Write a sequence for this structure.
């Protein structure tokens, strides 16, 4: 079998609403790094007309994705057909919902290797091809994929031609749940308790982070890092530069300029194919911890979340009374 050059991937793992998009975008500012967003969303997005890249162009008109896709997957109807096929394979191999259930089986395949004709191997080959082509087109040394899902990270560990490092980001579950509730309320005021939604999000937090920890341990301490959202927003520069070292390509963030707060990071446009609307954010950014949950999260919801998440909260250093 023909061997391919290795490609370095820094995979951002985390439960939704944990800050993965902004973490990825900041990593993408490092020299030699390309943040592609939630790459796992590429296949469905290719079926949406008018879907925009993080740079603001239509995905098929973006100077990066246009080259990557046409060289790797084809154009027009051929591309559309290939995208549907890969989307189908992705759901078959990595699942759609509650994907954490599939992590142990994927990690076992790491020892056995993937059967070359299996759906997992076919999907993995296409994914590695996209990573390699994105590196080739942009000259990037490290591809940052903020797909978040532990399953996809576990699959990467089975791929010998991908040199993967894993950054898992965790967030205080009360802050995460409040962020989910606000998202679900579409900016409307949240009156009263929404304990059912809160409990569901709290359980997703626990299951997702446990599965993430399993994959992180499988990668090993030299290839993985655990960070807390609250520490990242307090010290973004240090966090980002230490992750560059983890990925095997040490790099510094560009200086924010004279007189600027040293915690400021200047965001240039990125070529991201998925993630929340923060992916379009550009210019100087000074992060601060979103603490609205402390006054906004209803006491019943807060008690439910704390009770459900307590064992893992203690492991990550989140105190019940805060
Ligand atoms: Zn673009």
């Amino acid at each position: 079998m023909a061997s391919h050059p290795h490609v370095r991937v820094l995979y951002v793992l985390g439960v939704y609403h944990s800050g993965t998009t902004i973490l990825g975008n900041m990593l993408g500012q490092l020299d030699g790094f390309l943040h592609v967003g939630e790459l796992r969303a590429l296949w469905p997005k290719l079926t949406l007309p008018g879907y925009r890249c993080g740079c603001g162009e239509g995905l098929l008109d973006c100077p990066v994705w246009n080259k990557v896709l046409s060289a790797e997957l084809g154009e027009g109807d051929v591309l559309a057909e290939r995208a549907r096929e890969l989307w189908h394979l992705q759901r078959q191999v990595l699942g759609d919902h509650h994907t954490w259930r599939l992590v142990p089986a994927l990690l076992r395949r790491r020892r056995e290797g993937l059967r070359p004709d299996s759906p997992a191997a076919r999907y993995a080959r296409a994914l590695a091809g996209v990573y390699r082509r994105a590196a080739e087109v942009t000259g990037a040394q490290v591809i940052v994929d903020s797909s978040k899902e532990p399953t996809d990270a576990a699959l990467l560990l089975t791929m010998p031609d991908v040199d993967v490092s894993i950054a898992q980001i965790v967030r205080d579950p009360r802050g995460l749940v409040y962020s989910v509730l606000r998202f679900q309320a579409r900016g409307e005021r949240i009156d009263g308790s929404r304990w059912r939604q809160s409990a569901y999000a709290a359980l997703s937090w626990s299951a997702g982070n446990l599965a993430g920890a399993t994959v992180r341990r499988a990668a090993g301490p030299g290839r993985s890092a655990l960070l807390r959202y609250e520490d990242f927003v307090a010290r973004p520069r240090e966090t980002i530069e230490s992750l560059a070292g983890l990925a095997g390509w040490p790099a510094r963030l560009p200086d924010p300029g004279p007189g600027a707060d040293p915690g400021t990071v200047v965001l240039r446009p990125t070529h991201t194919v998925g993630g929340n609307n923060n992916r379009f954010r550009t210019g100087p950014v000074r992060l601060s911890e979103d603490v609205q949950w402390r006054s906004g999260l209803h006491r019943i919801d807060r008690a439910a979340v704390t009770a459900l998440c307590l064992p893992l909260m203690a492991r990550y250093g989140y105190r019940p009374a805060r």
